[in-house]
Amino acid sequence: MSINPIVLSIPIYFTLIGVELLVERLQHTERYRFHDAITNISCGMTSQITGVLLKVGVIGMYELLYTHFALFHIPQTWVWGIVLFILADLCYYFAHRYSHEINFFWGGHVVHHQSEDYNLSVALRQSSLQGFFTFLFYLPLAVLGFETEFFVYVSALVTLYQFWIHTEFIGKLGPLEWVFNTPSHHRVHHGRNPKYIDKNYAGTFIVWDRMFGTFQQEEETPVYGITTPARSWNPLWVNFNHYFQMREQLRETPGFWNKVRVMFGRPGWRPAALGGPYQIPEVDAATVQKYTTSAPRTVNFYVLLQYVVLLGVAAVFMFTQKDMEPAVRYSVAAWCMWTAVACGALFEAKRTGYLLEPVRVVVSLALLLFALRSSALFMSAAAVGTAWLAVSLLWAYSFRKVFASTAATTAASHAYA
Fold first, then answer.
1. What is the C-alpha separation between 113 and 116, in angstroms, rounded?
2. Residues 167/184, Cβ–Cβ less than 8 Å
3. Deepest of 52, 68, 71, 221, by most Cβ within 10 A of its Cβ?
4. Model-level pTM?
5. CA nearest 296: which of 288, 304, 284?
6. Which Pfam families does the UniProt record give (predicted)?
7. Long-range CB contacts (< 8 A, 24+ apart) of 13-20?
């Protein structure tokens, strides 16, 4: 298997998001917000890019254990595939559960819960850091004797299953609710109502939550998000925000063992001297205020067009990065990250975002010429470059008007980090 099934499924993801968005518009239900959906997709894109770059180390450790410590050598048959799927889903349950119950791990998972909406784009909102921790929970499968490529493929299917459950358009599904994770069960998991916190960790089979005492039925409509919102459209910041908060908490927490517990205890833990654990606040869907900013319409239109180009570059990267020279590979990856961050800065009307955008235009053109050195990328790079130049010309035309409106917009959103 040369391509991750998750990468191959990306066109299907976007098609289904488009269908859900169309239904939302026809029903006037307002389940999508432009800035939030773009940030969700940005987080997913940056997660896939960093995953490609870090995959060698993670998969290498699994392969090392399989090669030298496997108790058996299990054949790749459909029967054993089902067994592996069930075991991988069980491993996912515990990886997911401890990503909520250990504060340091929560910092790598919190990104997925930050959106205050609930739609299919939220499924793409993944952390760039979580893989550092969760892969440890799957290593017993290597020791059991499931071959590396077999494991990568089947565990990807566990992930693929979870895409469709991120929707509010599907209600309860009767008897299926007893066995499988469903949209209803997963809506509970994304709720920040006190009764919903740390419930329904399942990937595919909700039976794990029923067995281990973490199941909660969906009752009132959940309020989505986290108890301490990130309040940012910056995909880089939202990945590290929790660790900056943890650093501040460690500074004010006395005693070595208290600091250890801050890092590896439950999120929100504090020693009694500082008031004890933080209490989970009650929330009301009717009164909760979601994070929002109001960028000028010209900026939104520019970012949308720019984002289409970004997704094109990211797609080329995901499917051809193995054939790229190392310098090109890392340069394109860095450009994708920079562009995603730049889009967030423009949404938030950050002055630095407007000032650095012309710099990014120049760097982008230089990178395009650099990438054209590889003949395998010529057609893709030329197509993407042509589209990018058209978008850049649009920006050059509207830059003065947009920059003039920055002061008023910044005044309205200066409190947002």
1. 8
2. no
3. 52
4. 0.88
5. 304
6. FA_hydroxylase
7. 13/120, 13/123, 13/124, 13/163, 16/120, 16/163, 16/164, 17/119, 17/120, 17/121, 20/119, 20/120, 20/167, 20/169
